Amino acid sequence: MKIVLVTVDGKKTEPKGVISATLTQTAEVACDSLSVKFVGEKVLDEIERVYAYQNDKLIFNGYCDCQRVTADENGFETYIYARSSACLLVDNDAFAYTYNRPSAQSLFMTYAKELGFVSKLPDICTFKKYEVSSGSSLYGAINSLVSTITGNSIRINADNEIFMLKPSENVINLNNNRIISAKSTINRSEPISAVHYKKEFSYLYDCHTYSKLAVDLGFSRKRYVNLVSLPSWQRNYKISKMLKDSFKDYKRLEIKMNGYFDEELFQRFNYSSSIGDFKDYLLYEKVYCVDKNGEKTRLILKKNIDISEVNYVD
User: Which residues have C-beta within 8 Å of that of residue 257, sequence separation ≥ 6?
Assistant: First the structure.
């Protein structure tokens, strides 16, 4: 991994004495993060921008959040922590406004274009009113509309492109890699079996959504929620997301491998080993580390599950 640092006055430097570097990318987390530790003979000026390359491909483009220097008899050890350029959308508030029939593109033009981002979002819109409330971030203003309509979050890559993160159409065999270890976890502590909620002007929880999969697997966790304050077109999304999110960590696979792993988040994989056969798992997180022991990547994959939702009203 090649690291390039840019100071507040525009000077570029490539640290040579890198002790360790870790790049973390997580699905549905707005910002990637990069931490770097290196030694040198002098103290660097204040760092503003941080870039990382793998074989000349830009894999991280961000801003320095923390710069720490330690001095001892061996010289200066510098630690840098940076977040990807998505932090510009996370750290800035969106102005509150109620839109009439907005699209993802119109929100992009309003909230993100002037910051240098490029839209790769599909043609998504609603024919209802959409409210951006006070205190919402620029990221949240766009992401909330996209996720409410499609069920998918937005993501920003190293080229400042905003796109919709969704499961890949193809499935790749993960066995074709230099795998060091694999760990499987089944977590039955979270999945919800049913959600009960109110209709407008109702005093009763007379609307119901349950997961047929949860019932078949023997789960029995119910939730009661009041969604009267939400517009009607957002209620079904809220309930569906609550059920689906409860299954996110139900089946999880952790893979450690040598080298850098180039596949993108939400790529679907199959994997077989002595601990079992794992079909259709989504790549949720990549942690790429470089240190004295070489280059390694840790992958977190989660089962791509159809929870089989059923809706009914009393």
Answer: 177, 178, 179, 180, 296, 297, 299
DSSP letter at 14? Answer: -
User: Beta strand pairing status for 179-186 and 207-211?
Assistant: unpaired
Amino acid identity of residue 98, one-letter, is: T
Encode pLDDT of 146-174 as tens digits: 999 998 999 999 999 999 999 999 999 99
Label the pairing between strands 276-291 and 268-273.
antiparallel
| Element (DSSP H or E) covering residue 239 | helix 232-246
Measured between alpha carbons, how far apart are the two ends of the chain, in Å?
59
Q: Cα-flanking dihedrals φ and ψ of residue 243, to 5°?
A: -70, -50
Beta carbons of 307 and 241 less than 8 angstroms apart: no
Which helix (DSSP H) or strand (DSSP E) does residue 183 occupy?
A: strand 179-186
Q: Which residue has the tokens 């000026």?
A: 45
Do residues 224 and 207 touch, judged by C-beta distance below 8 A? Answer: no
Q: DSSP class of residue 126?
A: -
| Residues 6 or more apart in contact with residue 31 via CB below 8 angstroms | 62, 83, 84, 86, 87, 90
Long-range contacts of residues 222-227, Cβ cutoff 8 Å, at least 24 apart? 222/192, 222/193, 222/194, 222/195, 222/196, 223/192, 223/194, 223/195, 223/196, 224/195, 224/196, 224/197, 225/195, 225/196, 225/197, 226/197, 226/198, 227/197, 227/198
Supply angle C-alpha 213, 214, 220, rounded to 5: 160
Report d(CA 113, CA 105) in Å as an integer: 10
Residue whose structure tokens are 């000349």: 56
Q: What is the pLDDT of residue 11?
A: 95
Could you identify the residue written with the tokens 């990221």? 139
**pTM passes above 0.90:** yes
